[in-house]
Amino acid sequence: MFALIGLGIIACAGPVLPTMALAQQETPVSLTSSPAGQSSYQVITGDELDVFVWGEERMQRAVRVQPDGTFSFPLAGTIQASGRNVSDIAAEIRERISVNYRSSVPDVTVSVREATDMRFYVVGKVRTPGAYTSADPVNILQALSVAGGTAEFADIKNAVILRQTPNGQVVEPVELSTILKGGRALDAGALNRPLPVLLSGDVLVIP
């Protein structure tokens, strides 16, 4: 099972994603700042964020991302956080509170105080179906590998991802057969279509 060891995100507008690790590994996770000054970490449900409005100490607080992917903040109302990085969230808060200032609008910083491991599921004809967690994004091939690979008679051509969205559950077909054939079917170089990446709560189904 995937698990994150020693997670310590300090994502202010700049850290990169932590490393996904197997539970039995001893190497701790470390983070570095992104040269571009932008965080690639996407907030998920359950994360705890620190929000700071410069010059307004009364508006500095920790917020928890709720099951619907949102949190509430004074003067800004309800903010959609899940699936977004901290820079985008900070920009939206600053824009919303700007109507309350006659002159310059204070800068807003959003950081990840405590990250929640992403949980995904692999079911169907795999060797070890079940729920798994990871701090990093996981593509469909990685998800299949942690579930032990396909079992006998698996129909990989009809594999799908079940995903819950604000508008209801959707089914996303995925292409696994060509990838699993490896060198027999793949040309050298960049993939024409990157492997789909699972989001927290996604279910990869191998019929």
What is the structure about, briefly put?
The chain has 207 residues and is an alpha+beta fold. It contains 3 helices and 12 strands.
What does the model show?
The protein has 207 residues and is an alpha+beta fold. The chain has 2 domains: 1-116, wza like domain (wza like fold), CATH 3.30.1950.10; 118-206, Outer membrane lipoprotein wza domain like (Outer membrane lipoprotein wza fold like, Roll). The chain contains 3 helices and 12 strands, in the order E-E-E-E-H-E-E-E-E-H-E-E-H-E-E. The protein has helices at residues 86-97, 140-146, 177-180; strands spanning 48-53, 61-64, 70-73, 77-80, 108-114, 118-124, 130-134, 138-139, 160-165, 168-173, 197-198, 203-206. It has a 5-stranded mixed sheet, with helices on one face. Strand 3 (70-73) and strand 4 form a beta hairpin. The longest helix is centred in the middle third of the chain and has 12 residues, at 86-97. It is elongated and about 65 Å long.
What order do the helices and strands come in, and which of them pair?
Blueprint (H helix, E strand, L loop, with lengths): L47 E6 L7 E4 L5 E4 L3 E4 L5 H12 L10 E7 L3 E7 L5 E5 L3 E2 H7 L13 E6 L2 E6 L3 H4 L16 E2 L4 E4 L1
Parallel strand pairs: 6-12
Antiparallel strand pairs: 1-2, 1-5, 3-4, 6-7, 8-11, 9-10, 9-12
